[in-house]
Amino acid sequence: xxxxIIQWFPGHMAKTRRLMSECLPQVDIVIExxxxxxxVSSRNPEIQKLVSGKPLLTxxxxxxxxxxxxxxxxxxxxxxxxxxxxxxxxxxxxxxxxMLTAIRALLQEKTERYEEKGMAGRSLKAMVVGIPNAGxxxxxxxxxxxxxxxxxxxxxxxxxxQWVKTTIGLELLDMPGxxxxxxxxQTVGEHLAMTGAIKDQIIDIETLAVKLTGLLxxxxxxxxxxxxxxNEADISDDMQDYELFELIGKKRGFLLPGGMINExxxxxxxxxxxxxxxxxxxxxxxxNANLFS
Length: 293
Hints:
Order of helices and strands: HEHEHEHHEHEEHHHHH
Shape: elongated
Number of helices: 11
Radius of gyration: 21 Å
Distance between the termini: 15 Å
Number of strands: 6
Oligomer: single chain
Helix content: 25-40%
């Protein structure tokens, strides 16, 4: 069941499945973008079936926002499972220099056949898929050297497929970002919402921010305490996550008349500062962890 935090979310998988099936014969490879902070929750569970045997390259985006130590764990995980995966950042350009090399390695047999037929230098074509706000448009613009795709830090900006030529001999088919029809575990929905893959307008952001507070408290207590100037005297072992959330609002001075905490303002601030890595480089999911307990 989806998390009660999320009242509604877009479920256009049927349309996207048809679109992918129609376009797959036109491409040589599928590039799947995952959010490096949540590689499990941001991976479409149907992707292997959807790509229909095409070579698949996994790009973990926004790696400048995720924990470098956890990134290394994920690199080992993907290598162990014989999946080609690269950590990239479309804003800084980190990792993009390895992308074409990886694609050519995955398509070596096909490019050799092209060369045998006198078609050396033929552009390779890739379908780019991923959840909303995974960074597809940012990646495409970086590879094009010009603004070709609309970019905004919110989900659902790319609404239709579009072909884009790049400066590296690769043509990209940008597909609309989509979430699947149902989440098997409510934590998946929560993690997607925390990272901005689900529109804030359809989320109970106060409840989500309390959940995020608890998660950061367990995973990155030092970063949380340093950002919001929380010391040992402020907290206790039996403090509830909501109480810590209120303390953060109080530390920031987000008070209403009468001394009540402005929950909405605190929630918006906390989510924004997590998403922009102002709290620190944070990963919500690590391999081999009991992620959804």
